[in-house]
Amino acid sequence: RSTRVPVGEDQVLHLELAQDIAQHFNKKYGEFFPVPKAILSTTKKIKSLRDPSVKMSKSDPQKLATVNIADSPDEIVLKFRKAVTDFTSEVTYDPAARPGVSNLVSIHAAVTGLSIKEVLHQAAGLDTAHYKMVVAESVIQKFAPIRHEIKKLQEDKSHLIKVLEDGAEKAKELAAPVYQEIRRLVGFQ
After folding, report:
1. Is it the case that residue 41 has pLDDT exceeding 70?
2. Residue 44 scores a pLDDT above 70
3. Contact (CB, 8 A) for 128 and 83
4. Which of 70, 90, 123, 128 is most exposed, with minimal Cβ within 10 Å?
């Protein structure tokens, strides 16, 4: 029954389907479901480190193309060191002419919360080889607390199982009245 849903650009179609279903249900059975609106991130699609013409994807067969949250700092450094750029050493942002370097700038902005302009100001005077290491370090710092928490949870399986069971129970409690009201509205009760 959410009214606003944070989604990436590539999930907008899924949200539009949810909107259509809510509108059709409401038209047929009365106003019940809110029509959810998308909350889009300021960061658009992050591109592959190996092919900046496509988005970064967990399913990419090239291991060096995607940075995973659980990657070690050494793996992250290697992936950024091997990231595709071009033969111009200056760090600029021009996605059409310099997609590889622009992708690094976008990633850097996303993990630091800085604007593209601020990131470019910080990168002034750096060549792309050194800049890759700056971006890698920023990603490592951003992911460090998440990696730490994942490791902690993996080490305490009983706590993780309890969290999952508690979450499932809470979801059932929240969903049950909605489910019963839907059954009533459509005439199954």
Report:
1. yes
2. no
3. no
4. 70
